[in-house]
Design brief:
Elements lengths: L10 H15 L5 H20 L16 H9 L17 E4 L6 H7 L3 E4 L6 E4 L4 E3 L6 E3 L3 E4 L2
Parallel strand pairs: 1-2
Antiparallel strand pairs: 3-6, 4-5
Length: 151
């Protein structure tokens, strides 16, 4: 078995090395750890088989922290309900700019709500990164603007 540097090694090679390590571990390591490693190999293999053309980005944070507002900002349109009451969002949703082939991946991830969007004409770049200001209940996001340039 060879040791692979993480940064320069393709994911498929790292998964293959992990699978070899799981096989080599056999009865030598505790079963819970071997089972956990085997599950990673299986799950990653399943994910790799669904779509290599789609990148999934998750927005995570506390209730009321602005995830839906950020989702709408990134999508360029109002897709997620934003409200004063908590929690407002009850199910995961996806904004998909190139939806062909994304269905099985979103099914596997358990994302029921999907919004097919026209691809943006230009790449996005945050000209001024979001700033946060502590408040009594949540983080306040102040977006100062997006700049766009030709791709």
């Amino acid at each position: 078995m060879k040791i692979l540097p993480r940064r320069d090694t393709p994911l498929d090679d790292r998964l293959e090395a992990l699978a070899e390590a799981v096989t080599a571990a056999g009865d030598r390591l505790p079963e819970p750890e071997v089972s956990a490693a085997r599950a990673v190999v299986e799950r990653a293999g399943a994910r790799r088989g669904l779509s290599l053309d789609h990148t999934v980005v998750a927005l995570a944070g506390a209730t009321g922290s602005g995830k839906s507002s950020l989702f709408n900002l990134l999508a360029g349109t109002e897709l997620a309900e934003v409200g004063v009451t908590r929690p407002t969002t009850g199910a995961a949703q996806a904004a998909v700019w190139r939806p062909d082939g994304s269905g099985p991946l979103l099914d596997w991830l358990g994302v029921p709500r999907r919004h097919a969007l026209a691809p943006p004409p230009r790449a996005w770049s945050c000209s001024t990164c979001p700033t946060t200001t502590p408040s009594t209940s949540a983080t306040t996001w102040r977006w100062t603007g997006w700049s766009r340039w030709p791709t």
